[in-house]
Write a structure and sequence with these properties.
- It is a single chain.
- By secondary structure, this protein is an alpha+beta fold.
- The chain folds into two domains: 30 residues, no CATH class; 216 residues, Jelly Rolls (Sandwich).
- The protein has a 16-stranded mixed sheet that branches.
- A hairpin with a 2-residue loop joins β11 and β12.
Length: 280
């Protein structure tokens, strides 16, 4: 290989942190600069909120939500009443959408500081761990690609779903029966109190009940016959939610900076009539 190509290749490897990983022995005790980052309680922004929505903070105190408000999520709970909804854009790039009569508990949401060299909507520029307990109702989740060292897991009454990427709809019935639909992307479902697992592919869905878990059976379904129109709209709105805000590295603090894709002044404009003219 010519010298100039070798030098260029070396610079590329160093830029992505690959060369240091290749030079370390397999059993090296050297600290990985990514995994050594401290994970701190992370935040989200309310992009849409309608009807009656309640949040309980980590101390169990009720909190009133406001549009475009920044919220701490770690160890908090959310619930929506009938004809209500909530959409959140998380600082790691995940969009969450809660339908009516839905309640969730965010057991853990922690994130490292954002890497200033990588910012965008397609790939996570930090390391994060999200664990949500879905107690009742419907929740949509949407994101593109998390950091390989990050995790997004959803605790259901019948098991745990780890979402790798894509757009998913999770539903928990009052009798603890659950369904998972993959509009895009992939996920893995781990049955409760069992080593059994089920891979959820794009365009597929699974249905699980407490009875099916006892016999280690998971029902598969196709996307064409599974979702209703309202479910598709919920997922589409959640995908739109995650693209509303770009979170960037904050050199002056731990909380990331927020950059709205649509300027806030546009959101505050009065709604004009379809045809409105000004007379000169």
């Amino acid at each position: 290989m010519p010298r100039y190509l070798a030098d260029h290749f070396t610079r590329c490897l160093c830029g992505f942190g690959i060369l240091s990983a290749l030079c370390l022995p397999h059993n090296s005790s050297a600290e990985n600069p990514i995994t050594s980052r401290a994970l701190l309680p992370a935040i989200a922004v309310v992009t849409s909120c309608s009807g009656t929505v309640k949040q309980l903070d980590e101390d169990g105190k009720k909190r009133k939500l406001r549009l475009r408000e920044t919220l701490p999520l770690n160890q908090t709970s959310f619930s929506t009443a009938s004809n209500s909804s909530l959409f959140l854009c998380l600082s790691n790039g995940i969009g969450l959408g809660l339908s009516e009569s839905t309640s969730i508990r965010i057991q853990r949401y922690e994130q490292s500081m954002i890497n200033p060299m990588h910012a965008g909507l397609n790939f996570e520029n930090s390391v994060s761990h999200l664990r949500i307990q879905t107690e009742a109702g419907k929740i949509a989740v949407a994101f593109n690609h998390l950091n390989p060292q990050s995790k997004a897991e959803f605790i259901l009454p019948v098991g745990t779903l780890i979402v790798h990427s894509g757009q998913f709809l999770l539903e928990v019935d009052p009798n603890s029966a659950c369904s998972v639909i993959a509009y895009k992307g992939t996920a893995t479902f781990y049955q409760k109190d069992s080593t059994e697992r089920e891979f959820v592919a794009p365009g597929k869905g699974i249905s699980i009940s407490p009875e099916s878990v006892q016999r280690f059976a998971v029902d598969q379904s196709k996307l064409e016959t599974a979702p209703m129109q309202n479910d598709s709209l919920l997922v589409a709105a959640t995908e739109f939610t995650r693209k509303r805000i770009l979170f960037r590295h904050n050199p002056d603090g731990e909380q990331p900076l927020q950059q709205w894709i649509l300027p806030e002044r546009r959101l505050d404009q009065a709604i004009a009539r379809p045809f409105q003219f000004k007379l000169k």
